[in-house]
Amino acid sequence: MLRILALAGLLLLSLTAPARPQGLRDLISQLFIFGSGEQPLFLAGTADPNNPAAVQAHGDHFIPAAVEGNANLIAFLTRAIATSAANLPVSATSSGQTFQFVGGVPVATSTSPGPIFGERAQTLGRGRVFVGASYTKMRFTSLRGVDLENIQVNFTHVNADFPGCDSVFGADCSLMGVPTLENEYIELRLSLQLDMTATLFVLTYGLTDFLDVGAALPIVSTTLRGRSEAQVVPFGGPLATHFFAGTRDRPVLSASRNVEGSATGVGDLAARIKLRLGRSERAGFAVLADARFPTGSEQDLLGSGEIAVRTLGIVSARFGDFSPHANVGYLYRSGDQFSDAVVAVAGFDHALSPWATVAVDLMAELAAGDSKLSLPDPTTIDVPFRRIIQPGNIPNRRDDIVNGALGIKLEAAPGLWVIANALWPLNRGGLRPNAAWTVALEYSF
């Protein structure tokens, strides 16, 4: 077992390539940059030296809002994607028929190949090995219930209060809307296509009849296509003050940007241990602990960039061919951008025949406390009349995750099972696909 883990470590090092100077995370940032310059929402047209000096000064007046909104939005998008990559479901640790040794002879402790994603209390048995390989494909389609191809973000003007401002404009410059040009804002629409595939290799070994150890190595591929369209929303005056190109009397008030890229590499490596606490004729109890390490490139959206540790209490039972299970535990995430979560799984597997089993799971990950990923507060403009500019159409809400899964296991040869599974979201929290499709092979010996 130690040799196998050492080889896995060498494989991991060989597959982990240095981060590229520009990753997929940077591509999302580029969707906020138009024309010349490196700053988000820098107005190159307004700042053109051919324009009057008084107009040039307005070229960077949307940058402070862009920095705040851009940083929050990029953080939300990249963390949501990275979390999805790092939290790809891992096959159950004791899939397949399980055994214990009685008088030196292996005796089966289960007749079903078990659940697909949920955990049952049975352990593999001393000296037994479980290996698996799965392929999961998904396209993310919504972000907190908002269509990923129709995200709207609004950026307001900086409050230009400076010494002597009140006398220049004859009003209280501390109020948003004085001078009048502060009423203008930029409306930005994002259209994102995010595809992810993951090939997951799983190995579990029975150290004793009641203790299993294992590891999971994902190879993740992420593809990003994005388009942004920005529009200056003017407010009064015959001549423009804020524009992306052109002149004051012939301004260009809109701009767009396209980005595209992909990355493939090792995701976040997981290590697991399961201890069976007790067993009766029909039921069993166990605890499981696993940790995911930040081996995937956060810059390329292949991993979370943080450590995650999960503990689970497991109870399972068997009533003939019907085997229910329930898991409850806690997920700890390091870093100040991730929320911890209470995790729960309930489901069953049912043997339709000696060679076919159906598996059903309901999986929940409920955020512990408020979400640490939030967008800016709305901006209130006071003059010439009071109005509120919302930061966008993404709601501030908890990113609770509830998924349903339905799969089938077919025995292709003794100990070898072919698996097909569909997973779909049952709520609107976080970054979600319409469905995630998985095919897998599992073998125990």
Query: Could you give the order of the helices and strands?
Result: HHHHEEEEEHEEEEEEEEEEEEEEEE
Termini separation comes to: 14 Å
Mean pLDDT: 85
Q: Strand-residue fraction? A: over 45%
Radius of gyration, in Å, reads: 27 Å
**Globular, elongated, flat, extended or rod-shaped: what is the shape?**
elongated
CATH topology: Porin
Q: Which structural class do you get from the secondary structure elements?
A: mainly beta
So what's the CATH class?
A: Mainly Beta
CATH superfamily: monomeric porin ompg
What's the structural domain tally?
A: 1
Strand element count: 21
What topology, given as strand order, has the largest sheet?
3-6-7-11-12-13-14-15-16-19-20-21
Low-confidence sequence ranges: 1-21
CATH architecture classification name = Beta Barrel
Q: How many H/I helical runs? A: 5
Helix content: 10-25%
How many strands, which pairing sense, and closed or not: the largest β-sheet? 12 strands, antiparallel, barrel
A few lines on this structure:
The chain has 445 residues and is mainly beta. The chain is 12% helix and 46% strand. It has one domain (2-444): monomeric porin ompg (Porin), CATH 2.40.160.40.
